[in-house]
Design goal:
two-stranded antiparallel sheet, 4 helices, 4-stranded antiparallel β-sheet, 146 residues
Length: 146
Amino acid sequence: MVAEPDWLLLAGFDRYRRPLWLRPSAARARQAMRRAAAADGVVLEAVSGFRSHDYQLGIFERKLARGQTVAQILEVNAAPGYSEHHGGEALDIGTPGEPPAEESFEATPAFAWLAVHAGAHGFAMSYPRGNPHGIVYEPWHWRFAR
């Protein structure tokens, strides 16, 4: 189980203009990483940050209502209570003109920049190809790990 943090910091807004909440250290690192990418001409958009257990349950319920099985959902979404997003350190990242949370993100300059520079800002890709968690490859999902 991933515990929800006691408090979060507003780290800006996501591409949908929703408040982006992260743990304070992750929020500061995200801002610094975004500025560094911008200085290199790369736009990093937040797609999703903190998600509560209840929000994750809603994702499951919507997918079940559309006819997906629990096994199908677990290939792409953690069970409520087990998502890295619950801890306030995970960030789904996109870039303008690219659909959110798609494998095609790996072909963008934003992904290339992250592959080289994200580690210096404390972020690592959580679900590379062949990851031991059994989660599909998610080039957009990065977690603050300092």
